[in-house]
Structure prediction request, 102 residues.
Amino acid sequence: MSLAEIEALYRRPLNELLAESWALRQANFPLLLKLAVPGARHYEVEGFRNTPHRFVGVSLTGRACALGCEHCRGELLAAMHPATTPGALRALADELVAKGFS
Ligand code: SF4
Prediction:
């Protein structure tokens, strides 16, 4: 895509882009929405309940977050396993597998 095409895309009205995007989505994907549910929080709604520790959260930045979103300020990272180096990530994976995670 050329720079001119990208600039033209930015100038198009959002509603037009959304309608076009939705049409493309419908034409190419089934009407099915799959969600991953992290284990950091417990969810229980009609027809679904997540299992704690089934979906392990891992933070490659440890407790550091460069964005600092207003609703979170990095608190989400506190519930995750830190793995800030390849070796730490490997050790964590080995530890989780040994505990029966799959
Ligand atoms: S949601 Fe929380 S952890 Fe994620 S980027 Fe925002 S502040 Fe950082």
About this structure: The radius of gyration is 20 Å.
